[in-house]
Structure formats: C-alpha cells, structure tokens
Amino acid sequence: MTPFTGRRLRFAAALSALLLGACVSRPALGAPAPGAPGATLMGVRYWTGPDHTRIVLDVSTPVTFTQQSAGPRTLVVHLDGVSAAGDARRALRIADGVVRDVAVDSTATGIEVAVSLEVDAECRVFPIAPQGEKPDRLVIDVARAAEPTLEPAAPRPPERRERRIVIDPGHGGEDFGARGFGRTIEKAITLDIAKRVARLVDGPNDREVAVLTRERDEFVPLGRRVRVARDARADLFVSIHANSSPDPSGHGVEVFFVSLSGATDVAAQELADKENAADLIEGSADAGEAVLASDDLLGILLDMTQSETIERSSRLAESVIEAIRRRARVPVRGVKQAEFRVLRSVVVPSILIEVGFVTNREEAKKLSSSAHRERIAEGIADGIERFLELEETAPSLVDHVVAEGETLSGLAERHRMSSEELARLNGIPVGPLRIGQTIKVPR
Ligand SMILES: [Zn+2]
How far is the CA of 171 from the centre of ligand 1 (A)? Predict the structure, then answer.
C-alpha cells in the first residue's frame, strides 16, 4: 500500500487547484487543470457523508474544467475535450437531501456535468491524480451551506449522549480468515469474542451501546463495515481478528491502530495486506461502498482531524492491550501501527485486535475454550471502558463537531470564554463556522 506521505503531496497539489465558493452565488469561476484532448469520462459515482455529498468523475486522463452556476441550485462543470462513455452518460439520481441528481450532456467542446442541488450548498471541484488502479478523477464536493448568524446560540448543557462502540468481528461467510490447529477458524473465533465484548460493553448501567458489524456467519465487505460505523455514529471502532503465521511458534496478542506513514514493521504490513484482501473475495463491492472505502474520501478527512484521532487510537490500543494482558494473562506482542483499510476509513478512534495465533498449538487450544474467549472479551471491554473514563476525566480539550445553529460566539459562551480565545485555541479566524466542522473546546 502506498505510504500516506505520497498521497499527501498529491493531495496538496489537488488542493491548489481547488475552487472554493458557494455554488449558487459565485458564477463562472474557473481553474484550468492540465488538459488532454480525447479524454473519456468513464463513470460517475457518489457517496453521501454526514454533511456533504461527494461526486467522483472517473476520467481516462487529466482534464481541463471550469465550473459555473446555472440558475439557483445548479452547478455546471464543463470538461473540455472530454467525451462520455455510454454508461457515464446516464443521469444519476441521488436525492440525499443535498444533491438531487447529476446529468452528463455533450457540448460543442466536450461535456458538461450538471449537478442540481436540493439545498443551498458550497461546492469544491478538484482533480485527484491516478493512484494504483484508480484513474484520474475529478471530485465535486457539495457541502450543505452553513448558515452564518450573528445571534449567539442559546447556551445548552453539554450533551451526554450514549457512546456507541462498534465491534467488528473480522471475516465471515466464505471469507474464513486464518485456519489453524484443532479446526480453529478465525471467522468463528472473532464472531464469538465480538458478541461477548458487545454483551459486556452493553452492561445495564453503562452509557455505552455496542453495535456489531455482523451478528452471523456472513460475508461483510470492508466498505459496509465502515458504513455500519458511520450510520451508528460510532464513537469507537474495534475490529477483532485472530492471527496466523507460517512459524508455529509465533504467538501473543497484538493491537494495531491506524498508521499514516507506513507500518511499524514489515510483518505488520504483511498482516495488514492479508486482512485488507478480505474485499477481494467478493469481487468489487457496490459503487457506494467502493467510494466510501477508497482513498478519495480519506484525502479530505485525514487532513482535518486525523492526527488527533490517531493519537486517541493509540491510547485506546494501549488501554486495551494492557487490559487483555491483565485479564487473560496472555503474552502480548504490543501495540503496532499498520495501514488497515477498515481502520483508515473510519474517522473515530479505531483499533484492530489480533487475539492470538491459531497457528500456534497452545494458543489455538486456548482460543477454542469459551472461558479463555470470555477473558479476552473482558479484557477488550475493560480496556475500552478505561479509555473512555480517562478521556472523560482528563482535563484537556475535546473535539466538537459544529451542529446546525451553533456559532463560535455561542460555543465560546457555553465554555465561558471569549470568541477570540476559542478562535485562537483552534487557530481559526473569528467568523462563521461550518456545520460538521470539528473544533476543539474545553472538556
Ligand atoms: Zn483477520
């Protein structure tokens, strides 16, 4: 997998060509990208996020584009010297509350892509260079426009909503995962432990609610696992796996968290490659999932909040491995970083736990025992619990996602500080906030 640094460079280049502006109020802005005559639009995909819709145009070579508004709530992107493949010419109905539909039409000089909006929105159009098997892409991001208001929002008590812990049992269905001694099969071990963790996390007096990405022996593509987390508005994402090795002496519990800059070591990356291959079993996931799990989405998300999320993931990983060591009295191999796709696509603290090696005779035997699996589950639930406790009591800053109607001054007042102080804390100017924007506020 490509290390993140390479993508960051390309992403920065893409950003420099970025057009920022309200779709409907700033007509005829244009920025040329390197153009090539004879390019083909091969397909149009989209993905609906919590606060924006991303439309991805797959093109055969870099294209020159201009954007303009065409009447209220319509954005038109002209692609010069581009023709559309048959499939790409079909109108795409989205109707997700932000974008109504996308239509592709031929013009004298190329094609135009008309995006009709359901609400006032802000659009950004930018190219992404090819990566791996992915072609050149032109991305149209449509974000629900924030409604800037000078009225401070009424102070509200901080919300104490329940916390959703998404538990992700690795593999399933025709994807068996690792097979080991004594007919141990990874997919069965992960499901059993995940269910136990969910039951423990769901305790009657707790504020935590567990959500499983699968509850049966079924194949679930990585993209859908991520979508479960997103739909559940997950606070934490915990993926459970069992390890294997050609070396029968390999043993121990490992916890991974996402890496942006490459794996801790080669073995970690090999493992990540193995787990990432899960999606290949079913061929390609459907279009929405493919985009969701793709790097496209990450390009944006990573820049904004990811370093903080990674820091928290690392703390979650430490907390969980320590609790497993204590509860299950198993050797631990430690906490490592690797580029697991299922982790990278999630924007909340996320870890992947390898509960032991099924290829190690002793560990396979242990993992076959329900008492041992229960202790592992207790360790995981314990680690999660302690992590959450620590975050709650530590006197520091927390992320706050700006909701509709919230303003900088309103948030500042709620935290008994001035707008200027809160802005300085975040390194942002005093001004309107965007819905969905993450800012730091005191606990
Ligand atoms: Zn696995």
Answer: 6
Q: Report yes or no: 222 and 341 within 8 Å, Cβ to Cβ.
A: yes
Cβ count near 371 (within 10 Å): 8
pLDDT at 161: 62
CA 276–ligand 1 middle distance (angstroms): 9
Cα of 264 from ligand 1 centre, angstroms: 18
* Cβ pair 58, 133 in contact under 8 A: no
Query: What 8-state DSSP symbol labels residue 250?
Result: -
- How remote is the CA of residue 359 from the centroid of ligand 1, in Å? 13
Q: How far is the CA of 186 from the centre of ligand 1 (A)?
A: 7
CA dihedral 33, 38, 43, 49 (to 10 degrees): 0
Mean pLDDT by 10 residues, the chain (443 residues): 29 29 33 57 80 83 84 85 83 84 87 88 81 80 65 48 88 92 94 97 80 94 83 89 92 82 58 62 35 35 55 88 91 79 68 94 96 97 90 71 89 80 76 86 74
The rounded Å distance from CA 189 to ligand 1 centre is 10
Cα distances (angstroms) measured from residue 259 to each of 2, 245, 262, 285, 327: 12, 22, 6, 24, 27
- Ligand 1 centroid distance, CA of 278 (Å): 8
CA distance 377 to 48: 34
Q: Which residue pairs, CB below 8 angstroms and at least 24 apart, start in 1-6? A: 1/269, 1/272, 1/273, 1/276, 1/339, 2/131, 2/132, 3/261, 3/262, 4/259, 4/260, 4/261, 4/262, 4/302, 4/339, 5/261
Ligand 1 centroid distance, CA of 356 (Å) = 11
Distance 44 CA to ligand 1 centre (A): 32
Q: Which pair of structure tokens corresponds to residue 276?
A: 């990432």
Residue 245 to residue 251: CA distance in whole angstroms: 9
Write the single-letter amino acid at 142. V
**AA identity, residue 415:** H
Cα 345 to averaged position of ligand 1 atoms, centre (Å): 17
What is the DSSP track for 168-190? EE--BTTB---B-GGG-BHHHHH
For residue 137, list its beta bridge partners.
58, 128
CA of 297 to the centre of ligand 1 (A): 24
Q: Token pair 């159009």 is at which residue?
A: 125
CA of 240 to the centre of ligand 1 (A): 7
